[in-house]
Amino acid sequence: MNAVILVGGLGTRLRPLSINTPKSMMPVVNIPFIEYVIRRLSRHNIKHIVMAISHLAQPIKNYIGDGRRFGVSITYTVEDTALGTAGAVKNAEQYLDGETFVALNGDIFTDLDISAMVALHKRRKAKITIALIPVEDPTFYGLVETDDKGRITRFLEKPSREQITTNMINAGTYIMETDVLNSIPAQTMFSFEKEVFPPLLQKGEPIYAFPSSCYWMDIGTPQKYHQLNRDLLNGESNQFNFTANTRISSGKNSNTHRTAEITGPAVIGDNCTIGQKAVFNGAVVIGSGSTIGDGAIVEDSVIWQNVEIEKGAIIKRSIIADNCLIGSKSTIVDAVISDNVTITADYNLKAGSKIWPDKTIG
Ligand code: GTP
């Protein structure tokens, strides 16, 4: 079976993390996000994947290549200007062989059972099947109403509080017949949610829901990206398991001083050094090549690669991207720090700061 993954968005809400790193290459527990998505499709026997990328997405191509090492084959379609969710899939039509296919937003981490979803789609002879998941606050999402047989009756994009009639939202995974693409103009910005699904529903096409309450998280914002890392470390998804029952995993050539206090859950990448009496509290991820100095405290934070946190620094509820230097005894709380940033020693960064790449602060 074929799939199209949409990975050509700008990721503006994820800034400043997404300035130098495409959303799909964000490290999630030290593995680029897109790798989880591809491996999951492969496990569901989806072996040919079209990656709908933009011209900014060379790092994705460099990392994924032809897909062989993930057990799939990959084709890339590149958009000169963004074509929107439907326009991007239309652009991939020639690679879909006229067969039922899966389309998915490339920024969603989920345990959704795609095989069961495909089976339901075929049993119902649906034109489109849309995965739905429940959320607490649906106002930021596209709501989907269904009848008692699971057939979709109405779409409601980003509703106001008074309009909310369901907490089931579009989970960004679709099974489709290729003739759906006939209603989409070529090389034109076009949206499934706004311009394809509602008119097809009006025409009476069979569009069904596949509701699920499995793990689901989009990484659209730094907060959600952080939450996904936390959730995986806390065992919320079946796609991540600690092998050691201590819930602490340490990569090759990493050295944690025997006096360091790591309560876990924590994942430490390769070639890291954790100094004397360093303390980790809560869910902590440390990327490869990073150093945590003596007596530094890292709490509920995600640190990317080649970051140096000098002795006595305190990092809480923060994300620190590649190649940053945090000076000794500095304090970083609720911050999002992009790549190549230096925070000088003894500096108390204002809580909630977002720091753009290549800056020196202090
Ligand atoms: P924001 O700029 O923060 O809204 O992020 P985004 O650009 O990624 O948009 P959004 O979160 O709505 O996109 C959902 C998914 O669709 C993401 O995986 C995007 O990469 C993808 N996507 C959005 N627009 C396009 C597009 O024009 N072309 C392609 N190929 N993918 C897109």
Topology, please?
Elements: E1 2-6, E2 27-28, E3 31-32, H1 33-43, E4 48-54, H2 58-64, E5 73-79, H3 84-90, E6 101-105, E7 108-110, H4 114-123, E8 128-134, E9 142-146, E10 152-157, E11 168-176, H5 192-202, E12 207-211, E13 216-218, H6 222-233, E14 248-250, E15 255-256, E16 261-262, E17 266-268, E18 273-274, E19 279-286, E20 291-292, E21 297-303, E22 308-309, E23 314-316, E24 319-320, E25 325-326, E26 331-333, E27 336-337, E28 342-343, E29 354-355, E30 360-361
Parallel strand pairs: 1-4, 1-6, 4-5, 8-12, 14-17, 15-18, 16-19, 17-19, 18-20, 19-21, 20-22, 21-23, 21-24, 22-25, 23-26, 24-27, 25-28, 27-29, 28-30
Antiparallel strand pairs: 2-3, 6-11, 7-13, 8-11, 9-10
The structure holds guanosine-5'-triphosphate.
Description:
The protein is of the alpha/beta class. The protein has two domains: 2-223, Spore Coat Polysaccharide Biosynthesis Protein SpsA, Chain A (Alpha-Beta Complex); 248-361, UDP N-Acetylglucosamine Acyltransferase, domain 1 (3 Solenoid). It has six helices and 30 strands. The chain has helices spanning 33-43, 58-64, 84-90, 114-123, 192-202, 222-233; strands at 2-6, 27-28, 31-32, 48-54, 73-79, 101-105, 108-110, 128-134, 142-146, 152-157, 168-176, 207-211, 216-218, 248-250, 255-256, 261-262, 266-268, 273-274, 279-286, 291-292, 297-303, 308-309, 314-316, 319-320, 325-326, 331-333, 336-337, 342-343, 354-355, 360-361. Strands 14, 16, 17, 19, 21, 23, 24, 26, 27 and 29 form a ten-stranded parallel β-sheet that branches. The protein has a seven-stranded mixed β-sheet with strand order 5-4-1-6-11-8-12, with helices on both faces. A seven-stranded parallel β-sheet has the order 15-18-20-22-25-28-30, with no helix packed on it. β2 and β3 (31-32) form a beta hairpin. α3 crosses α5. The termini are far apart. The mean pLDDT is 94. Residues 6-14, 23, 52, 79, 82-85, 88, 105-107, 220 line the site of guanosine-5'-triphosphate. Guanosine-5'-triphosphate binds at residues 6-14, 23, 52, 79, 82-85, 88, 105-107, 220.
